[in-house]
Amino acid sequence: MRLHTGYPRARLATAVCAVLLICVGCAGFGQRQAPAPIYEVEKISAIVYGKGLTSDSKDFSKIRSYAYWQNRETGDSLPYKIGKKDMLADAYLPVDCSVPNKPAIIFIDGDSFQEDARTKHNTPPYGNFFASRGIAFFSIDHRLIADATPEGESTAERMDLKSAIRWLRANCETFGVDPNRIAVMGDSYGGRICVDVGISKADRYISDLPENHIDQSSRPDAVINLWGPLSVPDFDPSDPPFLLIFGSEDRLFNWGEMIADQCERNGIPCVFHVLEGEGHSPMDAKLNGKSINDLILDIVNEY
Q1: What is the structure's pLDDT at 265?
Q2: Which CATH superfamily is domain 2-300 in?
């Protein structure tokens, strides 16, 4: 089931909240909870959630593909040494929250492999907002181009997000998290990573390193995609629910429509919020008086 709100269906504006509750409830997200109280937030920094393979080869001019590690001119394999990098997460947790099984969000920022995303300027506001509403929020680092990953940086980033999901499931009691209510969330390229992980099969993007809790499921329970594109449209009815938020003037808007259409064709619950007149990364935009964080909060409290 797909709900499309905002642009161009302005006639839905006065009824969108009621429609959202009905459609999301019958789509399997669960029942609406009472408004969450505001909690103080505890931040725990630099938690090791897993390991990622890296290489000491930095001769990018000769590397034809990060996945194959071959000399551009000769095709010969390049010598390199493999190491392991600690993958880190920052946790934002509600203080004195009596709910034993809290929903959780794992956030991956859209940085196109260039810099560590865990502490970027837009991450703490997300963490503080959601944790203050009773949701455990985890912002993760991932491997970058500079790490010269033997799997290829695109594959490695998806592997890292799956490792974070498995790590959190293995440590749910520590953080008071419901193992069946773990959402992944990303903006721009981070949204793309979340979509790819959400629709990927269990045997794809999987690290075989024992440090990465390979006995746990890496399937997220919901995907929150903030203005991110799509790699391969490999959807099926078993995929988790989706929340999509895009500006109508975003150069990537067609990707949002494509993802929503794929969800509809496969019977995947999907809420598609369109912010009329907004471009890419409209952080301060509102829809029917609700901020983007409020729209996300509605869904997290539903599924």
Answers
A1: 97
A2: Alpha/Beta hydrolase fold, catalytic domain (3.40.50.1820)
